[in-house]
Design brief:
The protein is mostly helical. It is 63% helix and 7% strand. It has 7 helices and 5 strands; from the N terminus they run ααααααββββαβ. Helix 3 packs parallel to helix 4.
Length: 243
């Protein structure tokens, strides 16, 4: 597979504008690793051989890293959403995944099924699962704190009263729904298992949802697949719309 800046940019645009995984070479990340190594070597060589640092070269190298990271993060979210769906419905869809992503998909499904078994044991009254449940609870609590700190740090970098207001509104709605979910634990209608595809119509910084999962940031005209209860929050605040 021949990679260049234009091809990487093309893939990034496609990933940004569709909720589905873009079809790429199964060995994409292996080819990408080789390409980036060459670009890095060329960049370092140009710095050593020139008395002045080229701002254009530095900008091109930075843009390349930004595009590659964006591709990975978008595909990562899509793979994880598929893994969640697979663990809940048993329907496995590994189409258009790279070799690396298929391994990640299987690992995530395995972890989700492990903890799903713990929950089922609790519901079945199996006391031996209590220690595992406590460990899982501590792990989720620590993860929630880390996500909250990361989200706060990310929001500090955002500017504009409109974005801040939207985030506060969505966060408040999410807090209210978390409280409702705590009061209605075990109600199937409150679990929000449905995944819905929506189009983002306003730039949206990251936030913590009622399920204590980090969502965003989102950009205008971006298509994303999200749990229905998150979609309801965004649509209510005119941040997203269902086509």
């Amino acid at each position: 597979m021949d990679l260049n800046f234009e091809e990487i940019r093309r893939i990034q645009r496609l990933e940004k504008n569709t909720p589905r995984l873009v079809e790429i070479d199964p060995e994409f990340y292996a080819h990408l690793s080789g390409y980036l190594k060459k670009k890095k070597d060329d960049y370092v060589h140009s710095l050593k051989s020139s008395s002045a640092i080229s701002l254009e070269d530095a900008r091109d190298f930075e843009n390349m890293n930004r595009l590659v990271n964006d591709i990975y993060e978008r595909r990562e979210k899509k793979v994880i959403l598929r893994a969640i769906r697979a663990s809940r419905t048993g329907e496995v869809d590994n189409s258009h995944m790279t070799v690396f992503e298929e391994k990640m998909f299987k690992d995530v499904v395995s972890v989700l099924e492990k903890y799903k078994k713990v929950i089922n044991d609790i519901f079945d009254g199996n006391g031996s699962s209590s220690s595992l449940a406590k460990k899982a609870g501590k792990s989720m609590k620590s993860r929630g704190k880390a996500l909250s700190k990361g989200n706060e740090a990310g929001e500090d970098k955002k500017s504009g009263n409109d974005k801040t207001g939207v985030v506060e509104d969505v966060a408040e709605d999410a807090k209210t729904e978390r409280q409702e979910n705590d009061l209605s634990a075990g109600d199937p209608d409150k679990e929000g298992l449905n995944i819905v595809s929506v189009r983002i119509i306003k730039d949206m910084p990251g936030f913590i949802g009622p399920d204590k999962v980090s969502y965003g940031p989102f950009e205008v005209d971006q298509y994303v697949e999200l749990p229905k209860h998150i979609v309801d929050l965004l649509v209510k605040r005119n941040v997203a719309e269902i086509d």
